[in-house]
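Problem 3 from the worked examples.
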Amino acid sequence: MVYPRFINIILLSTTMLDILDKITYRYAPSRAISFETVHVFKALQLISKRSSRSKLIKELELGEGSIKTLIKHLKMYNLIYTNKCGTYLTEEGRGLYNKLFSFISECELPSSSIAIGRFNYAILLRGFAYVIRSGIEQRDAAIKVGALGATTLTYNQGFMMQGNIIESLENEPYEILMKLEPKDGDAIIIGSANDRLKAELGAKNAVIATLRMAGTSCKIR
């Protein structure tokens, strides 16, 4: 069930994803694009706190040429500006960032019975539990960007997996997930990988896939 108060958020997130997708388009005569929407997603987070080109290279693990193209495309859509001190979000970029992350919370997570990677990254999507099916779509999206996979939970008076309450979740991961302040109707996606960035990108790409699914369901309605 789609709660009415979330429909505007869903449609808004779909519009914002369309903007992020456009950042990844190739505009002649630019070089071939070697970054994806998920990299733009994380780049906005980094730039929201001020960032340098070297930091973007390090944190996104992309080459200098790719970061130059990414910055150029973000400027084309008036989402960022640069000066000698670094890279910043414009007013428009800050507005997009604030709206997109108004219903998202995230954290790192230790290995557990539900998150088996050496590194695990959890993202809560406020009000998106209704979108979750078997979790295969989220798993495939995570694998696409180099993660081992993704675990998808929902929350309804407790953490649930495929409609069943999880009773074996260890104390530490449980306490960390509760810091995300889950509420009934929320979804939690955990990306797992053998390195920290792939776990995070896996979770974020699974989130993007979930937002796309939500947007499709609203359009069908």
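Problem 4, a separate protein:
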Amino acid sequence: MKKTALIALVLFCCASFASAQKYALVDMEYILKNIPAYERANEQLNQSSRRWQAEVETLAKEAETLYKNYQSESVFLSAEQKTQREEEITAKEKEARELKHKYFGPEGELYKKRESLMTPIQDEIYNAVKEIAELRGYSMVIDRASATSVIYATPKIDISNEVLSRLGYAN
């Protein structure tokens, strides 16, 4: 009897602590779409990406042209000339790969530019969410856009518009 009462008391205490926690949701996609600076940063990234991709494609086309010329002229070339042309083609292909890595690699220019443009915006959003969470006593704020396991949440706990208001983008 005492064990049953003790177990019931422990379960009651756990349940009361669990229900005391407050949660909120934000929709980062919605917030970001409503921040003009984010849209401008995205456009700058897209422009840079297109420009850099064009540079890489130009080098790749040059290598392809060299290869096609080599194929059509290989019958008339000496062994030494063939070797020289093959080295030129290989060098041009290598240059294209290195340029692609420079711009689009894990620590490339696109990554650095994205970091420099997006980090300040993300920091602002994080600080606004943190202020609201501390002010309202939320234990956890979940991003609805990336939380794939959230099947349903009441709109009452979505603080996305409040975050936008705190950032100065009232709807």
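Solution to problem 4. The chain is about 75% helix and 5% strand. The chain has one domain: 19-167.
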